[in-house]
Amino acid sequence: MQAQSVVPDQSRESLDSETNSECSKEATAVLKDQETSDLRELEQALHYEEFRKHRPSSTRFLRRNAEYLIYLAGFWLADRFNLKRLQTGGKVIGKLAYRLFPKERGIALMQLSKIYPELSPEERDSWCLECFMHFGQLLTEFLGMQRIEEVWPECLEIVGDELLQEALAQEKGVLMMALHQGNWELISLFAKHAQIKMNAVTANFPESRVNEKLLERRENPWMSIIRRGEPGTVSKLLRSLRNREVLILAIDQDTNVPSNWVPFFGMPAKTPVGLAKLAWKSGSPLLSYAILRQPEGKFKLIFEKIDAIPGKNAGEEELFRLNRLLNHHLEQVIRREPKQWAWIHRRWRHQPDIESRLEMEKREEMQNSDQNIQID
Fold first, then answer.
1. Thinking of the domain 154-371, which architecture would CATH place it in?
2. What is the Cα–Cα distance from 222 to 197, expressed in whole angstroms?
3. Which of 29, 151, 225, 320 is deepest in the core (most CB within 10 A)?
4. How confident is the model at residue 311 (pLDDT cuts 50, 70, 90)?
């Protein structure tokens, strides 16, 4: 009779534990490989390398001076045309830019194909051309903003003004989310004529002389510009709310500021957290605005209330929840007039590493789960 080996219970349990551990490691490795593959697919789908501008540093001085001279020429010409001619000229500039700047055109077409896959190539080309024409008009309107002021307020329709008045009446200051759609610059004229004190946070233009010219156009007694990254910026933000003023910030672009990863049109997007932090810290009412282009050279200013009730703790989960809500609101606004949004900006330029993406997806699942519980 062949002898049978007997494995003690304790040894069997140890063996089972080791086997399960090995299986768990293999499953984790497979999952990680899958996540790596998914991340690579996403990076390939949003590949901006072919659109990167390789500008030698030796030409920086010439480029800066050229930019300044072009802006001076633009301001000079804008003073000599009425609004209708400025807008017509802006369309021509947009058409030329569409032909002359293939990298910006490529960025816009690529991003449109990801967000609106149902569009045919011909429809995407048409949307892209209209986007360039819109931004050409935005340029000439900004340079000749005094021409718009001459026909103010006949050129403007306002929707939701009562929401702004209700928010101001709370005397907590007002947080206003902007986006790069339509002619967002006209909010300074609205502030001036409505006599509502506003402060807008903007980035600095690389050429300092152009930066000063932009500041001259944007500021007036009722609109102040807070330059991002300068000393005392945070104090100015908080002071504007303490003074019961309107504070304007935009979060719809990929910029070099503190951010977190939040889905935007279904893809991970580096989203600034400044507005969410201020909403939690101040308890100020939160609105959005958009100034959309209308027929016959007119505009529609739309104010909307954002119901973002801050939680008790301003941790990463809370900032994710608030930015998720803000991004969802931005998606809805953009879809109303998608051809007037800045598709030429590389919105998904940065992408998260595997760990950051998994963390974002985990938080997204938790938020969806919480919403389903509330609905039930």
1. 3-Layer(aba) Sandwich (3.40)
2. 5
3. 320
4. low
